[in-house]
Amino acid sequence: MNSIEAIYKEHSKMVYRYLLSLTGDSDLAEELTQETFFQAVKGINRFDRSCKVSTWLCAIAKNQLLSWRRKNPAMEDISESHITTGSVEETVTASMGRMEILRKMHELPEPGREIMHLRLFGGLSFREIAEVMDRSENWARVTFYRAKEQLRKELEKDEK
Which of 12, 94, 104, 120 is 20 to 30 Å from 85 by CA-CA measure? Predict the structure, then answer.
């Protein structure tokens, strides 16, 4: 296996973007990224190579976020300032506020919700999403499309 320094250089930006997409908070994402790699160093002997290093790191990152959320339940709200422009937002922004879009996204079932966050807020490519979720790129595209369509229908239904 590569040295932890090489692993950090290769994967730290991806882990950070993943956490940023889930939190919407750059400071928290940076803190959790550091904690992720700290935990990876502590548990490197448990890495059994049954998955990619990036998948293993994202699993650690997600666990770190869940742990943080258990300890800080009042801090979980998403700020509307971290929304990036995306085709879903462009189609509905004219008539609906960002908070309504976030509320509707929050109601989406998994894995669609997570893929929407990774794509729209984290700026991850479908290839990167597939790697994070240990699935195919085509699966990521199809799941994103279905979640986007479900979100569009829900937003249109509320407009009427």
Answer: 12
